[in-house]
Amino acid sequence: MAKPSRKPSLPLLGEADTQLRSRPRRRRDPAQPNLPLDPMPARVEPCLALLKAKPPKGDDWVFEIKWDGYRLAVHIEPSGVRILTRGGHDWTARFPAILAEARRLPVSTAILDGEAVVLDAQGRSDFGMLQQSLGGRGGKRSSREAIFMAFDLLYFDGHDLTGTELSSRRHLLEGLVPAGGEDAIRLSEEIEADGDQLLSIACEHDLEGIIAKDRNSPYRSGRLGDWVKIKCIQSDGFVIVGYEKSTASFGGIGRLLLAARKGNELVYVGGVGTGFNERSAGELREQMDKLVTGQPAVDTGRKRNAVFIEPKLVAEIEYRAWTHDGKLRHSSYKGLREVQDNAAVYEITTN
Question: Which residue has the higher pLDDT, 24 or 241?
């Protein structure tokens, strides 16, 4: 049933039943200053997610899928677009599709926070595929396959949004990058769901996990707990300290020897012998052979056919659990982390 049309409201009347009118505005004095705009920062240190075993509870938390790629910030200015890594390195030329799409966004100035990913046939982010599209660690290739999953807006049309609550930043982001797009810049959509149920669904679909964010929080740099990550499978960075040779394996690599940090030292945490293909193993072997040393960085115990290298390469390793003596269980190699990505090395906490 159609609603009846509203009658026009009556004008306000003065004491003599004459219509009250506002005074005409004076012409603006050209010497009067404009409203101040916030200076656009050259770089914003990213907000990082704190690892938790279970999703948080409560109405203040919203959820997203966890993407497995490279954290990037896309800076849009009248002078051009810059794409910066988590460590502040300029990788604009390495993501031409993201660059072209950023130039088309209807905004004069902005900083978008998100993740560069390559999706597999099932729509899941695959870190190994992203690495290969960039030419492997240390490679200089540009990735035309990579897309940018935008999940935050830090600066918008002359205004710094970092002090604004997440819900307001997301509202503006969704107006700039609409949901459901298939361009090189896409919205990482928020999911209204129970955290435990969403995590279960994510794990069933072989996703890496989920991210929970406090909808009322400002954007704070560092790992302060406003954002929380919950993983289906553990995945962390470990230092490669050597490898065991094998004539039957890709690249002649039987097993990588890995270390984690404990205070200011490195501690041996076992090895990984799966997850390689011919291409990734060949690229890895080439990197390791440049770092061969006669002095092992950590005590790995007795190893047959071991080659030790300087502890300069950080590998992303998936694993299910730890053994009672502090070694990785059911581990699998995912790829090498870039120096520019500020790769974090797993830290063993002392009780």
Answer: 241
d(CA 31, CA 89): 41
Question: Does 130 or 4 have the greater pLDDT score?
Answer: 130
* Number of separate helices (H) and strands (E) present in the chain: 5, 17
**Positions marked active-site:** 66
Residue carrying the six token digits 């960085």: 297
At 164 the pLDDT is 97
User: CB within 8 A of 92, min separation 6: which ones?
Assistant: 81, 82, 83, 99
Q: Do the Cβ atoms of 232 and 203 come closer than 8 Å?
A: yes
pLDDT in tens, 230-261: 998 888 899 999 999 887 788 889 999 999 99
Residue for token pair 């906490």? 349
In Å, what is the CA distance from 32 to each residue of 27, 35, 137, 158, 188? 11, 10, 54, 19, 42
CA nearest neighbour of 335 among 349, 351, 318, 315: 315
Length of the chain: 351
List, as one string, the DSSP characters of 4-52. Answer: PPPPPPPPPB-TTSPBP-PPPPPPPPTTSPPPPPPPPPS--PPB-PEE-
Which is nearest to 40 in space by CA: 150, 176, 164, 158?
158
Handedness of CA 74, 114, 106, 164 (dihedral sign): negative
DSSP string, 51-104: E-SS---STTEEEEEPP-SEEEEEEEETTEEEEEETTS-B-GGG-HHHHHHHHH
Q: 137-140 long-range contacts, Cβ below 8 Å, gap at least 24?
A: 137/283, 137/287, 137/313, 137/335, 137/336, 137/337, 137/338, 138/287, 138/338, 140/94
Question: Which pLDDT value is given to residue 276?
Answer: 87
Kindly give, in sequence order, each residue whose CB lies less than 8 Å from that of residue 341, ignoring residues fewer than 6 positions away: 70, 71, 85, 86, 87
* Domains annotated on the chain, with CATH: 50-231 (3.30.470.30), 234-341 (2.40.50.140)
Mean pLDDT over all residues of the chain? 88
The label of the residue with tokens 């004491």 reads 15
C-alpha 72/C-alpha 48 separation (Å) is: 12
